[in-house]
Write a structure and sequence with these properties.
single chain; 294 residues; alpha+beta; 6 helices; 14 strands; 26% strand
């Protein structure tokens, strides 16, 4: 029989080797915690938890251990934070919309106001169409590319911001669910979450403590897990539009400004289960026009 220390060592080996979910002794996972461990607040004691075949969870021992190194949750999304000089594939103006339970063709139809169901192509073709379109001025890139990711369709809108426009978002989310993010280095970065034509919650990425919608706190638990500051006061977070930099009594402004975009996509991954990584640009896209104009 294994004692407590034997159980703990066995569980640690399982964590290190990456046990599969089908294994009857898969370590329990809680978002934001090291796999297989739960931390007691205020000390470094780790208690290993094992999932039994009947889905019960029991602890099998504890020990004082060095905290496990965890993966930075923002790391997969830093490519979306590239500066203009770094020349990321999407540039510094783009929108991404995650649309639940709609086929890509229906997503294209909604962006095109029912006039187009899309043509299959790739990201290079999408960029070419945008270059041709945007020479006209202030209506964005004029095109969207959509692919399927599980229960969600993901709409890519380079050089565009229509996905988070309130009227467009209302139509896009009719009878479904949409989480949309816009990065716009010359205007505002924003996130909006809508269900059935109603904005549930939204915020500018630099100001996560200022939210709007019919249920603005809906995603707060996920946001706090990602380190977003939601309970700030005016004394802690002051921005003067006439100044080059905001006045602040904390580091919150610097954190929000430098990590707002990757945190938004990490939040989207928590809500949708879809991690928008750079390799997704390599798959076929259904491309169509965006009919909306200012």
């Amino acid at each position: 029989m294994l004692g407590d220390e034997g159980h703990l060592a066995r569980a640690a080996r399982m964590v290190a080797s990456g046990s599969k979910s089908g294994d009857p002794l898969t370590p329990a996972y809680q978002p934001g915690e090291p796999l297989g461990c739960q931390r007691s607040q205020g000390n470094s004691a780790l208690r290993t938890v094992i999932r039994h075949p009947d889905d019960r969870m029991v602890s099998v021992g504890s020990a004082t251990m060095t905290p496990m190194t965890t993966t930075d949750p923002l790391a997969p999304f830093q490519w979306l934070n590239a500066s203009e000089s770094q020349a990321g594939p999407l540039g510094v103006i783009f929108s991404i919309a995650f649309v639940r339970n709609l086929d890509p063709s229906e997503v294209v139809r909604r962006f095109s106001k029912g006039d187009d169901s899309g043509q299959e192509s790739d990201f290079e073709e999408l960029k070419d169409r945008i270059v041709e379109f945007k020479s006209g001025g202030g209506d964005g890139g004029g095109h969207v590319g959509v692919f399927r990711a599980g229960a969600w369709s993901v709409a890519i809108e380079p050089y565009g911001w229509w996905a988070t426009d309130r009227d467009v978002l209302a139509e896009l989310s009719r009878d479904c669910e949409v989480l949309a993010i816009t990065r716009h280095d010359y205007a505002e970065h924003s996130l909006a979450y809508a269900i059935d034509a109603t904005i549930v919650t939204g915020h500018q990425l630099w100001y996560p403590h200022i939210r709007w919608g019919c249920d603005p706190d809906r995603l707060n638990d996920h946001m706090r897990e990602l380190g977003m500051q939601l309970d700030m006061t005016d004394d802690e977070y002051i921005y003067d539009a006439d100044e080059d930099e905001p006045e602040s009594n904390s580091d919150a402004w610097d954190i929000s400004r430098s990590t707002g975009v990757p945190r938004a996509f990490a939040l989207a991954a928590k809500v949708t289960g879809v991690s928008f990584t750079a390799d997704m640009l390599d798959q076929p896209l259904l491309i169509g026009p965006i009919a909306h104009r200012r």
